[in-house]
Amino acid sequence: MTAALLGAVLVVAGPFAVPAAQAQQEGKTLRVALVQEIDHLNPFTAGFASSSMIGRMNYEFLTLPSAEDATPTGGVSDKWSTSEDKLTWTFHIRDGMKWSDGKPVTAKDAAYTFKRIMTDKKAQEANGNYVEGFVDVTAPDDSTLIIKTKAPRASMTALDVPIVPEHIWSGVSDMADPKTDTPAVVGVGDGPFLITEYRPNEVVKLKANPDYWRGKPKFDELQFVAYKNSEAAVSALKNGEVDFVNRLTPTQFDALQGQSNIATNKASGRRYLDLLMNPGAQDAARQPIGDGNPALKDVRLRKAIATAINPKELVDKVLGGYGEVAGGLIPSMYSAYHYQPDSAKAYKFDIADANRQLDAAGYQRGADGTRTSPDGKPLNFRLTARSSEDFPQRTSEYLVGWLKQVGINLEKRLVSDAEVDEQTSSGNYDLALSSYNTNPDPDYTLAKQSCGNLPSTPGSGSTASFFCDPQFDQAYQAEAAETDQAKRSEYTRQAQARYYDQAPSFVLAYQNVLEAYRSDKFTNFVKQPVTSGPIMEQTGYWGFYGATPVGSSGGSGGGSTGLWIGIGVVVLVVLVGGGTFLAKRGKSVDDRE
Amino acid sequence: MSTTFDQPQALIDPDEHRGGTGTVRFVVRKVLEGLVSLVLVVVLGFLLFRLIPGDPIASLTRDRPTSPEQIAEMRRQLGVDNPMWRQFLDYVGGLLHGDFGLSTTFRRPVGEMIAERVGPTLLLVGTATVLAVIIGLWLGVRAAWRHNSAFDRAHTGIALTLWSVPQFWLGLVLLIATQGLFPSAGMRSPDIPDGFFPQALDVAHHLALPCVTLLLVIYAQYMLVMRSSLLGEMGADYLTTARAKGLRDDLVRKRHAVPNALLPTVTLVFLQFGMVVSGTVTVETVFTWPGLGQLLALALRGPDLPLLQGLFVVFAGSVIVMNMLAELLYRVLDPRVRAQ
């Protein structure tokens, strides 16, 4: 009966699959599987990574990180300059840009966008951070935008804020209005693609913007289709239901390699994975908080722990080779700011050396092999990590083993994501495995580790390392105010070098981003950075904007094979089901006699 | 024994009115009981979810550039810093106005988010339940009637195996086994076809796999209850009487045994329906079915307390309503219950 039912469903639905796949082929639509949720399309309230990625397609930015190396390049603005005192920034607005409803893009739109965020609390949700320290934003004429800031600020050319049309948004009084997520409001844009349809939890559709200032994209429609299950997304890529999948696991990525019509992209990523070592958590008033083991306040102990860890093995074994051994907080993909310690300063995995360091620092081994701190307490640490992810789970095993060899006992605490966040942000941990997604501009990544980011009350801040160091802060502040690229890079490296040396956390690896796409349908995706970066979830629109459809021949073979298999299955099911049914019928006739 | 003489007098009066006010009183009592349960659910839901560790704002701002001031503002807006009693009063006050609050993760009204997902879940669960009941009852009757036959043993075994299979695993296996025949995700194609019939076909195409997965897991209980219930009736004297009248075996089964054995199964259908609604988490996640189960999985990740509370009330509410319907239906179906 069940089989017969399945058969019936197949009869109804099986052949239907093919026309849909063919229609997609002809329409030059790029379908992307989106595994993360969308909270809002309204660019002022869109907080999720997926949502802001879609926003990037729809609205141009003042300036944005380039595809080449993620350094600032022109967007709505084509030229910019800063005053002598570095407090006034003047942006020239590009001539001839148009909103999709035909109105010109002017400096007034940009001024309106920033002012709205500055004055409307509800509009600060997504990008409030970027206007902090703004004193005033004005548009003296249509092509000049002037921003005045309280203090010099280097990250002014990395304002990750979509510029919106004033004539549409001045009519929106409540930013939380659900209407602001509909194409009626967000449908007017000036980016390479324009939002045309939004079915929550299902799909977002964008069409190519024919008037885009860089030129019309080379295909007609871009769709982001919801997939809550990455296995299903991979299967959809194989079937041709979608053309692009990201956030693949190493296993999925390996399985897709070498498949016909599918190309893979192993990209350097912007996420770093680190081991937090509670250096003595404190709040903004410098009062100690949390219950971290006080022994970890000793930088010599933290350095010895870093020496006893082998990041290379973690990258090879746990990440399956899909990662890089790390240096500073800024990953190598942002080459202008990345820090790699020279061999004299780097922690080199050496158990014997770690033991020597601990001996020298006065951590004597007890009878059972466990070391004790100078005040006589054994070095037993909790290791807090996410139970939901593979890396922390398996890494914790390695850490327990390595540290055991230097006389330090770890007690694994694998808990939910939310619990890890809660415990680390309130300082209730000894060691913890964490990670962070960095930005092309180094400012915020460093700001997170500065004294200014200590929480006013436990758990209320966004730091987890609780680092507060005058030398680091000095370098960070110099970087934040420096507009000369070379000098800024130097300060950024100095700050990272200090962080690396003091080891409030030990950055273990930069995780690779794993993506795959249908190479029989699309080509020329632009990576960011071009040599080794990801295609999706960039800080820009380069990846999909550059995509070019492959000639329309071929490709439907898979579909008709599917049809024949479908017909075969149906026939088989009908035969088997029917046969069984007839046999039963026969039997019940016997029974009646 | 004198009391037994007095009692019939006292019992006669209510019996006279049973057809009218008795039923009304029964219904009113059941509705009141349901409301009491619902109040308990609201209180319990509120307290229970406070026990989940985790700070929604911390998880939300973890990977996002946010200043301490912004975080403080978010806490203020969402009221997560208010004392517990204040949060509870706000919550209950909101519920009385039909307001489930604001999701902390999505910053959207919980009521709106639930409303947009009720339809897909009901479609999936409703279709799967109807099919599971039909298949389960049919197989159950056959199996019991031919007790210990190969058919009985095979189908009981299959049903029990499927019942114990994890839903997500079965879903993934079906997804991979039917590679390309059915859509891998969603309820509709990204490009919805024009016209009602093609649209219905499109939804049916998407519905097939999640529905079959759910169906395969849940039909066992209907089959097994039907089977054991019918087995219980098989030795009954009235069946011997029916056979003695010369009725064909088929008719004895259809007209006499099955109607009597059906009662516990019908109740089960209603009792289970409420459970199935909240049990779709895995199927909906595997097939990206945009329903309530998927929403629950998202809410737990936050943890998004307002969303969890809202879903808890909806899920518990559906169980309570279905229980009530089951009791009312039982009364209609079984004269013995009415007479009690």
Question: Can you walk through the features of this model?
Answer:
The complex is a heterodimer of chains A (593) and B (340). Chain A has 18 helices and 21 strands. By secondary structure, chain A is of the alpha+beta class. The longest helix of chain A has 36 residues. Chain A is globular. Chain A starts with a helix and ends with a helix. The relative contact order of chain A is 0.15. With 340 residues, chain B is mainly alpha-helical. The radius of gyration of chain B is 26 Å and the shape is globular. Chains A and B meet through helix 1, helix 2, strand 1, strand 10 and helix 7 of A and helix 2, helix 3, helix 5, helix 7 and helix 8 of B.
Concise summary:
The complex is a heterodimer of chains A (593) and B (340). Chain A is 33% helix and 20% strand.
**Structural class by helix and strand composition of chain B:** mainly alpha
Radius of gyration of chain B: 26 Å
Quaternary structure of the protein: heterodimer
State the helical fraction of chain B. Answer: over 70%
Characterize the largest beta sheet of chain A: strand count, sense, and whether it forms a barrel.
Answer: 7 strands, mixed
List keywords for this structure.
heterodimer; A: 593 residues; alpha+beta; 18 helices; 21 strands; B: 340 residues; mainly alpha; 14 helices; disordered N terminus
Please render the helix and strand layout as text.
The complex is a heterodimer of chains A (593) and B (340).
Chain A: H1 2-13, H2 17-27, E1 29-34, H3 49-58, E2 63-65, E3 72-74, E4 77-82, E5 88-93, H4 107-119, E6 134-141, E7 144-149, H5 166-169, H6 183-186, E8 193-199, E9 203-208, E10 221-226, H7 230-239, E11 244-245, H8 250-256, E12 262-277, H9 299-307, H10 311-318, E13 323-325, H11 351-360, E14 364-365, E15 371-372, E16 380-386, H12 390-405, E17 409-415, H13 417-425, E18 431-437, H14 443-447, H15 470-481, H16 485-502, E19 505-518, E20 522-523, H17 542-545, E21 548-549, H18 557-592
Parallel strand pairs in A: 1-10, 16-17, 16-18
Antiparallel strand pairs in A: 2-3, 4-5, 5-7, 6-7, 8-9, 9-10, 11-19, 12-18, 12-19, 13-19, 14-15, 20-21
Chain B: H1 2-50, H2 56-61, H3 68-78, H4 84-96, H5 110-145, H6 150-164, H7 167-177, H8 196-234, H9 237-244, H10 249-278, H11 281-286, H12 292-301, H13 305-333, H14 335-339
Helix pairs in contact in B: 1-13, 5-6, 5-8, 5-10, 6-8, 7-8, 8-10, 9-10, 10-13, 12-13
